[in-house]
Amino acid sequence: MNPISGLIYAASITTLLTAPLAAQETPSHYDFETSDTLTEALVNFNTYNRKLADVLARGDLTEDDMEKIHEYTYTLEVALAKINETLGALPATLEQVHKASESHNLAALQGVGDVYLENALPLAD
Length: 125
What we know:
About 75% of the residues lie in helices and about 0% in strands.
């Protein structure tokens, strides 16, 4: 292997090993609301979307307005990630409810039914 190929190979390996760490370390210069549960995520998503809409409705935006929007996006991104994570698993959970009910498996139905409702009911509020 020539020296240039070796450097390219080393850089590629370094990038592959550190990329997951970089993705987890989202730099933030604003505090944001956490969304540990789907309910929290939905509240934050709705609250911060209203705040965003209020600022955008002002028309001619100032730099301060744009900074406010920038700040809101941190909470919105965290909330949306939790919503996507939870709702992404919901169809598979519902399918488990379907199969457990179809096979009259009461123990499985109660367990998976509780999980399904825990994640589905906050959507109804």
